[in-house]
Amino acid sequence: MPTRNGFHVIVIAGPTAIGKTSLAIRLAKEFASEIISADSRQFYSELNIGVARPTENELSIIKHHFIADRSINDFLSAGQYAREAREKIDELSKTADRVIVTGGSGLHLKALISGIDDGPVVPNELREELQRAYLSNGLDAMQSQLKSLDPSLGFDFEWQNPKRVIRALEIVKSSGKPYLESFTPAKEIQWPVKTYTLEMPREMLYSRINRRVDKMMEDGLLEEVKSLSEYEDLEVMKTVGYSELFDYLDGNMNLGEAVDKIKQNSRRYAKRQMTWFRNQGDFKTLSTKSALNEIKLDSKSI
Questions:
Q1: Whose C-alpha in 5, 12, 164, 275 is 20 to 30 A from the C-alpha of 108?
Q2: At residue 8, what are phi and psi to the nearest 5 degrees?
């Protein structure tokens, strides 16, 4: 069955806690469509409270894809996500007029929308130098170097894959740019795409983040983290909301300090997300107050 005339993809991006899920659900109801998540921590069934997974009620209202559909042991790279998500969009395009994609994981959204090419040409001298460094110092040292050079890379990068880490170092060092900014589009998505990023006054967003963290703690985040102790060494467990509570459980800080740290790190992460999406150029920035009506108008004009 061919794609329906006028079919297009609506991408809702933006920082954590800004209200992407609720907006996506309202749009999906308006257009009788389904939602594809681009939140790389929500892929995993073991993670719930700490990743702000949509509630059971929200999931019952609109069909979501890539939400808790695999184990934490089944890592989903950005490239594989792009392949799987494009396959799902192709399937949905036969019966729907629109698909809503929402999330804040820039690497996965970039892979889905634009594809990821092989990056810039790297001098052989640099490639050989990094190979020697890896053989001499090991993966941990290479990870530390990459994190220092490009703090924007999150857990969803393949940190445990030496080839990926070394390749990223090659790209960052040779281009002088962050990893994600060093690529040109490879194979762009085949359907029309409208991309948006949400913003609100920073003080308001930070207040929402603080309240969300308090609600997570009330809902049992600490107990969730305790139940995940066997996975503490995984990269996803070194992200906001989990790493701080593992530090508490390991005796490195008290609980109040850990909660304050979650709030602080969440605010910093939100700031990085806003900066990244704003700098992409092809994401239209919308106020959360007007986003619903503006997207509806844009979408109906296609």
A1: 5
A2: -155, 165
Amino acid at 265: N
* DSSP state letter for 2: P
- 158-184 per-position pLDDT tens digit: 787 888 899 899 999 988 888 877 766
Longest dimension (CA), the chain: 59
Q: How many CB atoms lie within 10 A of CB 119?
A: 18
CA 40 → CA 13, 153, 198, 230, 288, distances in Å? 13, 13, 18, 20, 22
Amino acid at 70: R
The mean of the pLDDT values for the chain is: 92
Dihedral sign for Cα 185, 191, 192, 196, please.
negative
Give the model confidence (pLDDT) of 269-283 as tens digits.
999 999 989 888 789
CB burial string 49-88: b at 16+ within 10 A, e below: bbbbbbeeebeeebebbbbbeeebeebbbbeebbebbbeb
For residue 140, how many other CB atoms are within 10 A of its CB? Answer: 8
Residues linked to residue 11 through DSSP beta bridges, in sequence order: 101, 195
- 3-state helix/strand/coil string of 42-91: CCECCCCHHHCCCCHHHHHHCCEECCCCECCCCCCCHHHHHHHHHHHHHH
- Which domains does the chain carry? 8-116+185-300 (3.40.50.300), 124-182 (1.10.20)
Q: Which residues pair with 8 in a beta bridge?
A: 98
Angle between helix axes 139-149 and 162-175 (nearest 10 degrees) is 40
What's the whole-model pTM score?
A: 0.82
| 3 state DSSP class of 120 | coil
Spatial separation of the C-alpha atoms in residues 239 and 225, rounded to whole Å: 12
- Residue 106 pLDDT > 60, yes or no? yes
Kindly tell me the number of DSSP H helices and DSSP E strands found in the chain: 12, 6
Burial of 217 (0-12, 13-18, 19+ CB in 10 A): middle
> CA triplet 226, 228, 234: central angle to 5 degrees?
130
